[in-house]
Amino acid sequence: MRVYSYYTHHAERKRAIKVGGLLLCAILVICLTWDSSSAKLLIDVDNPNLGKMPIMVAQFTSNQPGSLNGSELASIIRTDLTLSGLFDVIEAPQPLPLTQNGDPDLNSLSSSGAQALVMGSFQVNGSELTVECRLYDISLQKLDLGKRFTGPLSEHRYIIHRLTDSLLEKITNLRGSFTTDIAFIVDDPRTREIFLMNYDGYNLRPLTDTKVLNLSPDWAPDGKGLIFTSYIKGRPDLWYVPLSDGRRVVLISDRKGLNASGRFSPDGSKIALSLSVKSIPKIFIINTRGDIINQLTNGLGNDISPTWSPDGANIAYVSDQAGSPQIYIVPVTGGRPKRITLSNAYNTDPDWSPRGDELVFTSKIDGRFQICVIKPDGSDFRVLTNKGSNQDPAWSPDGRMIAFTSNRDGFKRIFVMDAKGTVQVPVSNKSGKSPAWSPRLSR
Are 226 and 218 in contact (CB under 8 A)? Predict the structure, then answer.
């Protein structure tokens, strides 16, 4: 895909600085957060008192009638921004008020309460799509940013997601996760196959075709495949499946007993998993060929569900050595495990944030499972869900969103929420569980 971009720092600079580049696909949304003391649009994601920035997203326009709808393009941006938890998205008036020069009338939009405006246009030339997008600072009445992108028409959703990704990277110094996929286990009366979908539920497609029970998928850090536990040979073994061919599965570990809950290390060179020792599951570390590197736990309890810290130095896992499932942390080099969950009698499914500052997990509260977060030192325990029963949390690669399983609508399906739990939406129509969020993917 070809990507052409222009950038303007000030409204009075009418001449765009053109930058040519070859990328697989790209796009940039335009919005920033607001600091009233300095009159700048910016977002400080580390501010615990951060409020949502009001931002207006206008319908994209085109002088060519066709199958692609400008309202749909704007809707993709609105969904991405809303799920980030950083924006209060306002729909722009239609038609958008313009000045005599054809620019948006920012003065008339100032009464809306929005601090920024995203607007754009698109053109379709055969199978090729060109999108132009601009960000305006409504408060300062100026153009802050503009971008133009060209790519396959069939990839229009990916292009718009890439737009939002680039926007968040510009205003927070962290890329978004809108060009990612979620793998999950689809419930079926006969099998439990792994399916893939875009993070927002679109482009649902099957990956495996084993016709048996499959469990606990986890993405390789390079995004080229997943490991999972499967009963292909009639017992719970650990397998790898490449995205390029879901029928070509590769056996990694088939030791007697459990070979379960495999999780790649951040660099992809090792896998933490539960293996049976005298019929009791313990946490082991193996290489990608299945050779044992070391046994990490050896207490009296059942030890399952490992998750790596983003620096690869520690592993959190679940053990019932104290009588009920609780979350512990142990150094990868070995040592005494430290229990970090002290509230509630049942805590499981830990997943370490890519930012390293929190773990998300499932806790049984008042008879129902809820998604919670806690810091690695055991402080700042917070409950994020309260509707139905919620399990299997998984972080997005930027640490801004969490996928999880919920039955709040009467059947189990995958939901996505922002990291604070303020926005929670279903993204899968199929009944399923065990979501695993991909790294950022290229096309």
Answer: yes
- Are 260 and 154 part of one and the same domain? no
The 10 Å Cβ neighbour count of residue 387 is 13
β-strand pairing of 53-57 with 116-125: parallel
DSSP letter assigned to residue 104: B
Could you tell me where the beta strands, DSSP code E, fall in 84-141? 87-91, 116-125, 128-137
For residue 54, what are the CA distances in angstroms to 117, 337, 407? 9, 45, 32
* Cβ neighbours of residue 152 closer than 8 Å, sequence gap 6 or more: 1, 127, 128, 129
Residue 442 lies in a domain: no
The residue to which tokens 């737009």 are assigned: 163
Residue 283's domain comprises: 181-437
In a domain, 443, yes or no: no
Q: What is the pLDDT of residues 222-272, one digit of tens each?
A: 999 999 999 999 999 999 999 999 999 999 999 999 999 999 999 999 999
Residues across the chain: 443
- Residues contacting 3, CB < 8 A, separation 6+: 21, 22, 23, 25, 26, 149, 150, 151
Q: Are 251 and 237 in contact (CB under 8 A)?
A: yes
Instruction: For residue 4, give every residue at least 6 positions away whose Cβ sits within 8 Å of its Cβ, in sequence order, or none.
Output: 18, 19, 20, 21, 148, 149, 150
- Residue where the block lists tokens 């896998």: 271
187 plus 162 within the same structural domain = no
CA distance 114 to 138: 7
In three-state secondary structure terms, 360 is strand
Tens of pLDDT, residue by residue over 316-361, are 999 999 999 999 999 999 999 999 999 899 999 999 999 999 999 9
| DSSP codes joined into one string, 174-221 | S---TT-EEEEEEE-SS-EEEEEEETTS-S-EE----SSBEEEEEE-T
Query: What SS3 class is residue 304?
Result: strand
- Provide the sign of the torsion angle of the four alpha carbons 233, 236, 238, 239, taken in this order: positive
374 with 359: CB under 8 angstroms? yes
Q: In terms of Cα–Cα distance, which of 70, 74, 42 is closest to 57?
A: 74
